[in-house]
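Thread: (-)-alpha-amorphene synthase, structure

OP (GT): Posting the sequence first so everyone is looking at the same thing. Length is 325 residues per the record. Can we get the structure tokens written out before standup tomorrow? I want them in the notebook alongside the other entries.
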Amino acid sequence: MDRHGGGTADSLKDLIDDRLYMPFPFLRNRHESEAAAGVDAWLRTWGLTDEPAVAAMIAGTRPAQLASYNSPAMDSDVLQIVANQIAYQFIFDDRAEELGRRWPGRLLPLVCESVAILRDGGPPVTALGAALADLHRQVRERCTPAQAARWAWHSREYVHGLMYEAVAQTQPFPLRLGVCGSIRSLTAGVEPFHPLCEAAQPCELAPEELHHPVVRRLGRLSADAAVWIPDLFSAVKEQRAGELINLALAYQRAHRCSLPVAVTLAIGRINSTIREFEKLYDEIRPELSPSGIGYVDAMAGWIRGCYYWSRTVPRYAGAGSASHR
């Protein structure tokens, strides 16, 4: 039975709703509409929505809604940075996918510009680069130097991941499940938000807490679950577009099965990931400071938020019409 009241599972969306383990309740941030207006203004400032196709993509993606669902307790200033970054990453990711699939060599200047901005504070030469430089400024002004440095490092790792994805898309042979998972971890773009989750807490986390092996493992589990859940809902869209770096599609290739069976296998992996997150958090919670608890709660928020956003966002509407049979 569909937990959202729909009866038997007649579509992939119903199948996901029915079988995905989601212990975290739906929440949203009271500053969502303010963040949405801020995103629209910020994108216009840097000319990123001048192209009608990009403007339509943002309208169908709802970055501020994703930020709101992921970060329901976040103050408006940090929430705005999160929403701006989500919008930027969707635009950057779509552009990188287009270049990487059709002209991989043309992706290099885009990647090099981003890395120079994030690593060296280099001057931007494109509209995307100018937006990234401004986003970097916002992070430096709101975060501590250590948090901003972690944000830049994770953001560079995400940018490099897009090159790996471009290489994978050009290979004539099917990608192994493990390779696909490794690339997906890099291109997820979730871990750059963890320093912003920390910045939203009352105090900066002590190094021994931030780098505790269990806290680091929780970060990995959060990032994986948060990106694998949208993979379930986007599988139809990405299958039609010939994309490869998607957990459900990787299971389909590995097991040579139907998409519904592959989605079910992927759900099993996600459920195990979420349960491990719950178990480890329960074990370490008594040792964490109030800011540490807030930090890990924010990681859980990304798991919850990506689910509730994915099941309603127009970008993944195909999951609601595709049969699960």
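GT: Both are above now. Quick notes for whoever picks this up: The chain has one domain: 12-321. The CA atoms of residues 113 and 129 lie 7 Å apart.
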